Amino acid sequence: MEIDLSVDLGSLNLANPVLTASGTFGYAQEFSEFVNLNRLGGVVTKSITRYPRPGNPPHRIVEVSCGMLNSIGLANVGVDAFIREKMPFLRTLQCRKIVNIAGECIEDYVAVLEKLASVEEDIDAYEVNLSCPNVKEGGRTFGKDPEQVFKMTRALRQMTGKPLIVKLTPNVSDIGELGKAAEEGGADILSAVNTFVGLAVDVERRRPILGTVTGGFSGPAIKPLALAKVWELRQAVDLPIIGIGGIFRANDVLEFLLVGASAVQVGTANFVDPSISEKIVDELEQSCRRMGISRIRDLIGALETT
Ligand code: SIN
Question: Which of 22, 193, 199, 259 has a Cα at 20 to 30 A from 68?
Fold first, then answer.
């Protein structure tokens, strides 16, 4: 049986639903010796900001039971160096190239998009990070406020015809409100979820392990939480959703598709096995064959609740 793994997220077509999550896959080139990148649905870059950022003081990553906490602080080379040093490799890829952008205010995001316009023909979509829990200004502040999410999305919508993916925080009581705000602002796609705020303690030293005290919790433990958030979003908006949270196996991907995601991003798993994203694509095909599913898209939103 021929298995068709392709999915459409509005005008963004993917050969399969497996993307890599921002901040867990560098600028993609770092993983090219472990993964045939062209077998993926696409790659999502680290968050790119207006100016280079060194990130937060150490420790910035700590493994905890069933997951990981990070407080990277959006460390990246900045948009100028990104265009100069990272785009040449990205433009050689056949899979979808999604550039994640971040900032501390609307003007920052606008400035990044303005610069990226010069290489936009080699970019398939933008993911707008409105959800980083680790920087004082920016995502953490305005990503929780539906009005700010609306304003940011609207401002960026006016600047590009490329698909605009808005990445949402789960650290709110009503993620549907954020999704609706992004939809009204002109987003094409939502991605959910970014990390949950968490804290790890060094008991001997009586100190937090992370330099910023709290960080973003990710990994297998958050999968049920993320599935519930995607399900909640699915009821609130009509936009395609990219599900993120604790995906390590093909079965995890299928769970996200059933609750209404059209694609997924693999994140923390890349730290455990740098070749896992491609393995998940292989495994997805086998799972579909075993289940007698010829078109994976038929599973999207097919969860039966009654
Ligand atoms: C970070 O750089 O601190 C993590 C990015 C994010 O959670 O959006």
Answer: 259
